[in-house]
Amino acid sequence: MMFDYVSFLQNLSNGVLIGGVYALIGVGLTLVFGVMKIINFAHGDFVILGMYCAVLLNSLLGWDPYLSLLVAMPLGFMAGALLQRLVLSRLMEAPPESSLLVTLGLALVIGNILLLTFGAEPKSVNVSYASSTVSLGKVSFSIILLLAGLATMVVIAGLYTVLNHTELGRAIRATADNRLGAELVGINTRWIEAVVFGIGMALAVTAGVVLIPLLFATPTFSGAIFTLKAFVVTVLGGLGNIGAAIAGGLLLGVVEVMGASYLTSDYRDAYGLLVFLLILLLRPEGLFGKTVKRV
Amino acid sequence: MSDQADNVLSVQNVDLGYGSLKVVFDASLTVKSGELVGLIGGNGSGKSTILRAVSGMIKPWKGTIHFDGQEVSGRKPHEMARLGLAHVPMGRQLFGNMTVHDNLLLGASLPAARDRRDENLEKVLTLFPDLKKYAREKAVQLSGGQQQMVAIARGLMLGPKMILLDEPSLGLSPLLVKDVMAAIRRVADTGMPILLVEQNVKQVLQVSDRAYVLENGYQVLDGPSSALQGNEMIKKAYLGL
Ligand SMILES: Nc1ncnc2c1ncn2[C@@H]1O[C@H](COP(=O)(O)OP(=O)(O)OP(=O)(O)O)[C@@H](O)[C@H]1O
Ligand SMILES: [Mg+2]
């Protein structure tokens, strides 16, 4: 049997595009970790919130899902900043496991509010161009996957610019690097944390919005799956490193699509975990981590 | 009493401690404009504790602290920074994974300092010309002495009225200690008042104008550094003569 290059390229491009969205989710998680040193177990539920935001605006106002980004992103940012100020900021002096309990609790609350509001049946948004494609040679690209990839690129490029070319970004990097040092030079680190958690949530809801034409949203279950994916993506790359989270996301996307296509699609979500375990066995510091710290 | 008016910093009869443990007893010191003042003493004698009280990290149990003409005891560290006090802490607390240039710019994070950032950067680079060479390197890649220069320079980027230095010689080789002390003297010669905390008594007495000696929380001596260099007790206890 001849190796089928066309379907391989097809799978590769699909994997990269969906992986871009995973990268977007992972970048939010890793940014929050880098600055606040907590793992946000509600991150996947923020993704789901983005999905339902698009569902709601579509059913009430007939909005195209991508249009709802205009509402979802600023709202996500504000909600994240508020959550940090009102809830997470109270954990500053608390032992580390309390942030785990609080964010897990947050995940439960979000999931169940969605369940009460939208019911248990899966929801999606149908767009007229859902099955449209553009072709490049024999490889065809789904429009909605391309739009997802494009949105991801724009948002990540925007984040990169903010972090590396603005005063705010410099203050964020400084806080992630050395919190005490940041306080000594007069940076208001509590304010920076609120901004960063807001950015993390804005990235997550963005991912949710661009996924809704592709996937069904369910209230309580899919949040945990996305948190898990985000966790895999960030740990694959090395926690706290944004470039690595992007690479981790792309890798996860490709692995999932390839596995589903060449093995069996029933275990799609498991392939990522399998590669995750393998990589951690071989390189406990993650793909791009510099040093192994064993205590 | 000396003329209060030209004191940038005046600590009067403070008791300081942690929890219920008192570690500094009735300490007083002043720093006048343009002075480089040393605060020396052995391990655990209370030097850093006094600095912490001045920069607002702890509140005095008794006594007063005046900075730039105002009573400031009980103010928070960011308020003290805003009033123009730069604290270069022990261990430097640089942003290790960021460039030296970024570290310096971050020294001017407060709005008032931000407005004069370019001007201050130029001044600081004239004082520490070597930093130009390392501007694009990550702070963590510099030697300990270079890192200490960055820490002092970052403090100066605040455009402060006074600067507190806590053990800048810590972990440096004797040769580098000399470099750092010379740099501190250069900063003082620009008119910047400095309170320099050190265990390295010999070096401090060589560069400072005046010094206070602390032992187990009690001030045991103070005076012009040149006089202290000749003091029998200092010679025996700290200079190993
Ligand atoms: N955070 C703290 N809590 C309780 N006790 C403290 C604390 N910091 C310092 N001490 C105690 O206060 C005393 C003075 O400490 P301080 O750090 O001021 O000494 P130092 O003169 O700076 O010493 P070194 O030269 O070792 O830095 C010591 O006995 C120390 O154990
Ligand atoms: Mg000390």
UniProtKB/TrEMBL annotation, chain A:
The keyword Repressor does not apply. InterPro entries: ABC_transp_permease, BCAA_transport_permease. One of its GO terms (cellular component) is plasma membrane. The keyword Secreted does not apply. One of its GO terms (molecular function) is transmembrane transporter activity. The chain crosses the membrane at residues 12-34, 46-63, 69-88, 100-120, 140-163, 194-215, 270-288. Keywords: Amino-acid transport, Cell membrane, Membrane, Transmembrane, Transmembrane helix, Transport. It is a multi-pass membrane protein. It is found in: Cell inner membrane. It comes from the Bacteria. Pfam families: BPD_transp_2. GO terms for biological process: amino acid transport. Belongs to the binding-protein-dependent transport system permease family. LivHM subfamily. This is Branched-chain amino acid ABC transporter permease. It comes from Vreelandella sp. SM1641.
Automatic annotation (TrEMBL), chain B:
One of its GO terms (molecular function) is branched-chain amino acid transmembrane transporter activity. This is ABC transporter ATP-binding protein. GO terms for biological process: L-amino acid transport. CDD domains: ABC_TM1139_LivF_branched. The keyword Amino-acid biosynthesis does not apply. Residues 9-241 form the ABC transporter domain. Keywords: Amino-acid transport, ATP-binding, Nucleotide-binding, Transport. It holds the Pfam family ABC_tran. InterPro entries: AAA+_ATPase, ABC_transporter-like_ATP-bd, ABC_transporter-like_CS, BCAA_Transport_ATP-bd_LivF, P-loop_NTPase. Belongs to the ABC transporter superfamily.
